[in-house]
Design goal:
13 helices, Aspartate Aminotransferase, domain 2, Aspartate Aminotransferase, domain 1, disordered N terminus, alpha/beta, 33% helix, 3 domains, 7-stranded mixed sheet, 4-stranded antiparallel sheet
Length: 420
């Protein structure tokens, strides 16, 4: 008789290779197989020793997957209500330029639609059919290629859950959106980093070498890239698509770039996924609505694995309402692009900042002339102006400034001038 005692407490799994009879302590017997093994559940402990003596005391974290015990949490941006409490300021007195949010908010149709919402007590459509139909009309790609999510962040995680086995590899091209590295860690994947060049362009030759040598499952790319605002041209993207790797192209900021989305490309390239969001374009960051275009051979499996009610009633209603006012969306985009150019020119006049040209709704600045980037961020926060600083080594000397309304730019510049 061989016995395995689980948790050293009141039940055991007993494996009897010699006898077909149950022992007196066993209450359940499984069917015999050809090898003559009997599986039995014991109602008494195998050993009467204490848990403390055996070192088998159970704590909550003992149930957590091993790789998650060392996971560092994602560092999100704080919302108005938290900032208001911490800074002792009214929300309307805070200049929030740290999260690339759309300061103009959604079209008025969104608030009207939310106010007349009829069925908040009914589960949402698990297929988001109304939204996907509206997105098909908006993007020009059929709805069967489109999947909606609770923000593009949910879709990033869903892709990884469907594609990656523990120990599989992804390629990340920092500096870039840190959610890719975070979700890879959650899914027990390995991250191979291929750093961008000094101008933030992709090192395509190095990417090709890594794909050949390491055999990663997928590569995550952002265009425009967060945090620098650079874009990936067609030639570069086509070179990467020629590699045997799944390419996930994040177009969260594509509206501000002046280039066309590659959503329709998924009909031609089986190894391409394109992600989009309503957070920047339509001012719906707080309602969490994202979507993506997928090859039909891939989207089938995402439909199987996604949470059934992942897009709320409020989120779908809001996104559909926003798409009904394309004139508003276009006007806001134009206003933000114009303000981006104005902000860039003004930041160039600051003696300790070196701003980079951007195709997005934010500007990355190198902090120079002996000024400390982290302290700059903290000094501005004391004046209720919030910008983004990064703790990672590659960006420790940089700050990122979101594009706001003209009055937000004016407030920022006034505070910056007080520092020199």
């Amino acid at each position: 008789m061989g016995a395995i005692d689980f948790f050293c407490i009141s039940s055991s799994l007993c494996i009897d290779r010699t006898s077909r009879r149950l022992g007196s302590s066993c209450s359940v017997e499984g069917k015999l197989n050809r090898s003559g093994i009997t599986y039995m559940a014991s109602s008494v402990p195998v050993k009467e020793e204490s848990q403390q003596h055996l070192g088998c005391s159970v704590t909550g974290d003992s149930f957590i997957r091993h790789h998650l015990r060392k996971l560092s949490p994602y560092q999100p941006i704080l919302p108005f209500e938290i900032l208001s409490t911490r800074l002792g300021r009214k929300p309307e007195d805070i200049v929030k330029l740290d999260a690339n949010e759309n300061p103009y908010g959604p079209p008025p149709e969104v608030l009207e639609a939310l106010g007349s919402m009829r069925f908040p007590y009914i589960y949402p459509d698990p297929e988001s059919r109304s939204l996907r139909a509206a997105l098909a009309e908006d993007s020009g790609i059929e709805s069967e290629y489109i999947l909606a999510g609770c923000g593009a962040d949910e879709l990033i995680d869903l892709i990884m859950r469907c594609v990656l086995d523990p120990g599989d590899k992804i390629v990340d091209c920092p500096p870039t959106f840190t959610m890719y590295e975070f979700d890879a860690a959650v899914n027990a994947a390995l991250v191979i980093k291929v750093s961008r060049k000094s101008d933030f362009s992709l090192d395509v030759e190095r990417i090709a070498d890594v794909v050949e040598q390491e055999r990663p499952k997928c590569i995550f790319l952002t265009s425009p890239n967060n945090p620098d605002g650079s874009i990936i041209n067609d030639e570069t993207l086509l070179k990467i698509l020629a590699l045997p790797v799944l390419v996930v192209l994040d177009e969260a900021y594509i509206e501000f770039s002046g280039i066309e989305s590659r959503m329709s490309w998924v009909k031609k390239y089986e190894n391409l996924i394109v992600l989009r969001t309503f957070s920047k374009r339509a001012g719906l960051a707080g309602l969490r609505v994202g979507y993506g275009a997928f090859p039909l051979s891939i989207i089938e499996y995402l439909w199987r694995a996604k949470q059934p009610y992942n897009v709320s009633v409020a989120a779908e209603i809001s996104a559909c309402a926003a798409l009904k006012n394309p004139v508003y969306l276009e006007n806001i985009k134009v206003a933000l692009v114009q303000e981006r150019e104005r902000l860039f020119k003004l930041l160039r006049e600051v003696p300790f900042l070196n701003p980079y040209p951007s195709y997005s709704n934010f500007i990355l600045c190198e902090v120079t002339s002996g000024m400390d980037a982290k302290k700059l961020k903290e000094d501005l926060a004391k004046m209720a102006v919030m910008i983004r600083h990064y703790n990672n080594k590659e960006l420790s000397g940089y700050v990122r400034v979101s594009v706001g309304k003209p009055e937000h730019t004016d407030a920022l510049m006034e505070c910056l001038k007080s520092l020199y």
